[in-house]
Amino acid sequence: MDKKKLYIRNLTDGTTDINLQLELLAGEKGLDKEICVGDVNRPGLSLAGFFDFFAFSRIQLFGLGETAYMRNISDKQMKEMLETFFSYDILCCVFTHDVKPNQIFIELANAKNIPTFVSRYSTTRFISLWTHAVEQYFAQEMTIHGSLVDVFGVGVLLLGKSGVGKSECALELIEKGHRLVADDVVEIQKIDELFLFGTAAEIIRHHMEIRGLGIINVREIYGIGSVRNRKRIDIIVMLEEWDETKEYDRLGLDELKYTILDIDLSYITVPVRPGRNIPILIETAALNHRLKKMGTNSARELDLKIKDIVSKE
What is the pLDDT of residue 1? Predict the structure, then answer.
């Protein structure tokens, strides 16, 4: 997969979901610069003349402190300082709190083709929005064949061979009040190097393919409360046809893991055969996962009680 690229122009042209309420003030000819670093820099020290370790390749963020400093120096000092500042290959400048720079700044930014914006957001809010947007934009991605359902607040990813009944199981969970995130193709993003979030491709969102019925629109049939657009993946449930020769886990003492994008997720295998109520088993697995997150492992607690009784005897 080719690495995504992000340019200054994309911050305002609507081609991405990044919306930072930016208004271009100067430097239009520099909009084709590529954003290679997701961090921002507060240039207070640089404005005061200290350029050691100057992170000029980042977005330069001017908050109330930086703009107040520039208002309190003479035009001559301002011009000298900015000529040194703009001698670096600045990526772009953003002024927050809807405070615009003076004409000297605008003229030099235009002369050096440094895109300069103003945002109505506060500095803290801008940094928060920018960090979140960039992390999502550059997040590792992959697609996987399965169904993702929100069961009691737990993101359950159903996997298994084609025809094993993933969609039918997901449909029954929806009928029981749980929410569909994606069916058939799940798009997965790795966020913060810690979490996996799943969603559906825009064109098939809220739709399911059920053998014998065809394509159905879950949101239209069951209502808006039956779907959600995005959900963190918490547990993997592998559905497979019952194999009489295979030994299935009956205690749950061993916590198996399934790795996606280098992140380990809790993993269970559920054998499918006539007469087994698979949706109820998945509901129970989701609740048991929540219980473990709260510090209660039923299988281990029972194992300890049995060992304690045996040791006393």
Answer: 46
